[in-house]
Amino acid sequence: MGEYRIVLLRHGESVGNANNYHQGQYDFPLTDRGRRQVHLLLDRWVKEEKRFDQVIASPLARARETAEIIAAGLNLPLEFDDDWMERNTGALQGLPEDTAKILYPAPDFFSPFDSIVGNGEGDWELYLRAGRALLMLLRRPAGSYLVVSHGGLLNQVICAILETAHHANRNGAHFRFNNTAFATFIYRFEEHRWEVCGINDAMHLNGENAKNDR
């Protein structure tokens, strides 16, 4: 019971981001630029005297390294949880975007219940996993939590928080997360009340471009 302050952070730029690959759960590491982005964020949070009780992260390399840098720099406990991994995008994972468009052209219509290219997680399946990750977070003691994850999964977490419906062909709301951008929420348990304090905060990047997850 009590108040939760939750910061949802997307990882720094990865090799997959930089080279236009579909990532999903393919384990691309950070680029040197991605590491610089993470250190810029760390410097900002040190100056702001940012404090968290716990860091929880996806175990995929790009999120893991991002979390390790932040946790070490702020002297925070860190744990990894598979529920915070990026969407499994099936046969698209690890493919260059141009190749994927040729091998697996997008269908004219797909619903939130459809899988992605074989065994990939559709929107509804990913939403359920995101909801489970959020539920388990809120079963922890009230406090301040940093979650380091991925753009696709974090979008579904925000959909769960805001109770946003899914649409066919992935129409509807989408929440931007640049590399090392973060969203901040406060949840008051006794009132079941969410407060949105910010989304896609990347002021530490000083206008540096960053690519979205694929």
Question: How would you characterize the overall build of this protein?
Answer:
- The chain is globular.
- A six-stranded mixed beta sheet has the order 3-2-4-1-5-6, with helices on both faces.
- With 214 residues, it is an alpha/beta fold.
- Helix 2 runs parallel beside helix 3 (61-74) and helix 5 crosses helix 6.
- The chain has one domain (3-205): Rossmann fold (3-Layer(aba) Sandwich), CATH 3.40.50.1240.
- The protein is built from six helices and six strands, in the order E-H-H-E-H-E-H-H-E-H-E-E.
- The termini are far apart.
Give the key terms.
214 residues; 6 strands; 6 helices; alpha/beta; Rossmann fold; six-stranded mixed beta sheet
Question: What is this structure, in a nutshell?
Answer:
The protein has 214 residues and is α/β, with parallel strands linked by helices. The protein is 32% helix and 17% strand. The chain has a single domain, classed as Rossmann fold.
